[in-house]
Design goal:
By secondary structure, this protein is mostly helical. It contains 3 helices and no strands. The radius of gyration is 18 Å and the shape is elongated.
């Protein structure tokens, strides 16, 4: 995950330089789209691991309401990824 985020950070710096160098707007936009896809992919990957860990290791496994609330929160977060 750290490697993925470092790559995104590098892409962002590259776009900043492209804008400062007054590069073609289509090239800049293409890189922004690539950054968005990379962030979304990293987010999904991270969310998948969090969901697995969160649901398997809940301290309140016997509390059905707490489990439902956790699932609802995770589903809301997943929905925000596609906005």
């Amino acid at each position: 995950m750290i490697h993925r985020l470092a790559r995104v950070e590098g892409q962002l710096r590259g776009v900043q330089k492209m804008i400062a160098d007054d590069r073609d707007c289509r090239e800049v936009f293409q890189q922004l789209i690539a950054i968005r896809a990379a962030v979304q992919s990293a987010s999904l990957s991270y969310l998948q691991s969090v969901i697995s860990e969160c649901l398997l290791n809940m301290d309140y496994q016997d509390d059905l309401d707490a489990q439902k609330a956790t699932m609802t929160d995770l589903i809301k977060m997943l929905g925000k990824l596609s906005e």
